[in-house]
Automatic annotation (TrEMBL):
One of its GO terms (biological process) is amino acid biosynthetic process. Its EC number is 2.6.1.42. It is an enzyme of class 2 (transferase). The lineage of its organism: Bacteria, Pseudomonadati, Pseudomonadota, Alphaproteobacteria, Rhodospirillales. Pathway: Amino-acid biosynthesis; L-valine biosynthesis; L-valine from pyruvate: step 4/4; Amino-acid biosynthesis; L-leucine biosynthesis; L-leucine from 3-methyl-2-oxobutanoate: step 4/4; Amino-acid biosynthesis; L-isoleucine biosynthesis; L-isoleucine from 2-oxobutanoate: step 4/4. Gene3D superfamilies: 3.30.470.10, D-amino Acid Aminotransferase, subunit A, domain 2 (3.20.10.10). It holds the Pfam family Aminotran_4. This is Probable branched-chain-amino-acid aminotransferase. GO terms for cellular component: cytosol. Its cofactor is pyridoxal 5'-phosphate. It catalyses: L-isoleucine + 2-oxoglutarate = (S)-3-methyl-2-oxopentanoate + L-glutamate; L-leucine + 2-oxoglutarate = 4-methyl-2-oxopentanoate + L-glutamate; L-valine + 2-oxoglutarate = 3-methyl-2-oxobutanoate + L-glutamate.
Length: 291
């Protein structure tokens, strides 16, 4: 079966899909994106992803290319045409195509691309064993709360992690405090069992999974503290984990040369991950593919 992409109003073969060389996303990384999981044919936390997409666009003063209902319709069609039951949908919107010049172009419609891919999350063995992180300086700009396609520092950090056979890079500011990871939010569990993650601000991306896990933790009666923590505190924590649309809640058993806890996934993250799967199973949103 051929993969299908949506590009500016048309469904085209993925291998032929293209945007213009003067698309501002290509030339200035002047655009935003979203990634939504599809679980058993349903989008996960769909409203949260559309809310964040609208906010990212608003912050960059890029017009919505269509209504939210329109976005829903196209996303559903891309998922359906690619027969994705478990996977992700990727949505990218840029300020459009215009002769290269820094100021915003006038009367230029935004460009929109959507693709869908099969496969969601790592193999169960990965979470069962836990993953390692490397620490890396956070060299990103001051608006990390906007989900822009401008991901070069994230790419460099993730590459450093891959080269050291680590799952993720945990990003650390000049003050020694952790912001998040290259493509996920960072969490620790303190000795007395509190979950700690950095509060929302311009310093981190407000993860949709982060928000969902806070709600699930609350429902479990766990204490959640939204505060900053240092790399040293993370290395000495009882448990560490990362969260994202495709990793859910992923246990961490090592940061650099420091073993976390007893070197195995902790009980709190293991339980929280199970609750996240319960949430995925209980999803009652619209069915985009299958029955
Ligand atoms: C920098 C960064 N932080 C956090 C996240 C997690 O966000 P979400 O849970 O919405 O996938 C991502 C996801 O791509 C990310 O790129």
């Amino acid at each position: 079966m051929s993969r299908i992409a949506y590009v500016n109003g048309q469904y085209v073969l993925h291998r032929d899909a293209a945007v213009h060389i003067e698309d501002r996303g290509y030339q200035f990384s002047d655009g935003i994106y979203e990634v939504t999981a599809i679980y058993k044919g349903r989008p996960v936390d769909n409203d949260g992803h559309w809310d964040r997409l609208e906010r990212s666009l608003r912050e960059l003063r890029i017009d919505m290319p269509m209504t939210r209902g329109g976005l829903d319709l196209v996303a559903r069609e891309v998922v359906r045409r690619n027969r994705v039951r478990n996977g992700i949908i990727y949505i990218q919107i840029t300020r459009g195509v215009s002769p290269r010049n820094h100021p915003f172009p006038k009367d230029t419609p935004p460009s929109i691309v959507m693709t869908a891919r099969h496969g969601l999350g790592s193999k169960p063995e990965v979470a069962a064993k836990g993953v390692s992180l490397i620490s890396h300086p956070d060299i990103r700009w001051g608006r990390r709360d906007i989900k822009t396609v401008s991901l070069l520092p994230n790419v460099l950090a993730k590459q450093a992690a891959y080269e050291q056979h680590a799952y993720e890079a945990i990003l650390v500011g000049p003050d020694g405090m952790v912001s998040e990871c290259s493509s996920s939010n960072a969490w620790i569990v303190t000795k007395d069992g509190a979950l700690v993650t950095r509060p929302l601000s311009n310093d981190i991306l407000g993860g949709i999974t982060r928000k969902r896990l806070i709600d699930l933790a609350d429902a479990e009666g766990l204490r959640v503290e939204e505060r900053s923590f240092s790399l040293d505190e993370a290395k000495a924590a009882r448990e560490v984990f990362v969260s994202s649309t495709s990793s859910f809640a992923m246990p961490v058993v090592r940061i650099d040369d420091s073993v976390i806890g007893n070197g195995h996934p902790g009980s709190i993250v293991t339980n929280l991950r199970a609750r996240y799967f319960d949430f995925l199973e209980s999803a009652s949103g619209p069915l985009w593919y299958g029955h």
